[in-house]
Predict the structure of FAD-binding domain-containing protein.
Amino acid sequence: MSIERYDIVIIGAGPVGLLLSTCLARWGYKIKHIDMRPVPTVTGRADGIQPRSLDLLRNMGLKRAIMANEPAKVYEVAFWDPAENSKGIHRTGTWASCPKFIDARYPFTTLLHQGLIERVFISDLEQNGVKIQRPWRITGFSSDGVDKHYPVEVSIAHVDGDEQETVRAKYLFSGEGARSFVREQLGVGITHKDPIAHVWGVMDGVVRTNFPDIKMKCTIHSDAGSIMVIPREANMVRLYIQVASSTDADWNPRKTATTEQVQEAAKKILAPYWIEWDRVEWYSVYPIGQGIADRYTLDERVFMGGDCCHTHSPKAGQGMNTAFLDAQNLAWKIHHVESGFADRSILKSYEGERKLIAESLLNFDSQYAKLFSQRQPPAGEVGHASKHATGDEQVEENEFIKMFKASCEFTSGYGVAYDENIFNWSDSHPAKSSLFLSEKAGSTTQRPGRILSPATVTRVADANVVHLEQEIPLNGSYRIYLFAGKPSVTKKAVDDFAANLKKKGSFFSSYTRPDADQISYHERHNPHSLFFTINTIFNAPRPDIEVRALLPELLARYFDHVYADDIWDQRVPNAKAAAHAKMGLSEEEGGVVIVRPDGYVGCAVKLVEGSGTVDALNEYFASFCTKSFGGGDRAQL
């Protein structure tokens, strides 16, 4: 009997498994996806979608379906502390959930129970022919290499019966959560970053109260204990209450508490305010420690991500969001390897990039919690920290303000900064052209390994004002942003750029899609290559841009991706071309910014006449692609 073969077997249908599965299903891969639970999450679990994750979900076309559930939105966080003379608690300050110094499209946290989020992904998967197999579990696996094309053998079984299957796959991914069979079988340990462990009680319910900030996220410290309040959808509220800590004299990691005990504790903490429950939707007690897996993969065939690899306090609100970015990072790299675009060695960068972010998050979480517990911030200081300094204004920052700003970047998701590597250009990169622009040298504001700065522009085709960073969906393509400056200045440079892209052996022409001659007239994003989409942005008013007159045929084919940089932006108030200015590029001469499929900057290059700009990009792409261009040598990660 022949064994069924799959591109990937995914274990676990939580956030990390679902996003990975969704991306790969859209890109045409054959997926076996199983989950131990008979149905998606019914109540409880993760609930916070941070601003950066909302960008990602919008880029995947899923944001509208998630927002249709009418989630709660947290714009501000309130802090409550003991009042003088033992008179209960009082508000000591509020601050923005995502302050103005962060350039975010959605400056709020979206709060919605995980099951509703899962169902949005599951619906998309089913439209692409993937159905979650429930309730099934993994019983064994081996990378035996018997079949060199499908080297991983995976055994699975029905949770409640004797039914079993054995399949072969190119990849196996564990999104099982903290108790991972795959991680245990691989012998991968968990390193605990913080020796202090906590037991938390978590309760979702509908309440009645005269506490004024029940609709806001609150951190409440009182003489009777501490509690965190999180507003939820459908008029619900989530309460986090610390049940036990390893610093307690009678520390017991298995300590528990009943619903009634947690409610009584909450009443004491909230005094002089009262609170009563109409109903409790979900309640759980669980231990939490800061831990990170020592490895995310051993062989670049069996991978892990999400809670399987990192756990931390619920205060951070990062579990689901970090999981999303784990999945996104791995998805496009597997896609580029399996489609023949990139060398297999790029898969090593999944662990390199994502483990770094998890370590940074855990280190920050520990430092911030320690600093915060040492000193409560006055409301005036918090308000000062929330302001966005413009121009040459110098603001004296103490340690708390610095940590506050760092915290906002981390919790919003915009603090992700990947180190220099083969994708994220630096002076040590194999591509050595003098035309590369550098944030360190001040020739651009775009730092490789960080998210592209958001910019608002006018689409020439229909005069719609759009968000430039959202114009290309998450489709596995590199995004080429040609900031074309003033047409009168850059006409020859733009023509030469297109001519050299077309030239045989360029990074662009080397990956022309085989069906290019039959491609639909209406194809907006990938008419020439499945790995590149081109946006062209002119420093000119929209009525002055005649696309087919200004652009050579290759660039004009991306008719729906031509824009006028004519929208004012408060962050660069004196700029005539705000998008150019936010990228740190010349408003007259422009430049080229290459963005990875996940939205993070790869490199920026000066736009010049002749072949220099494309020559530099040939060097960049030759360092990890399966082909060499323009004499470039491929490097290994």
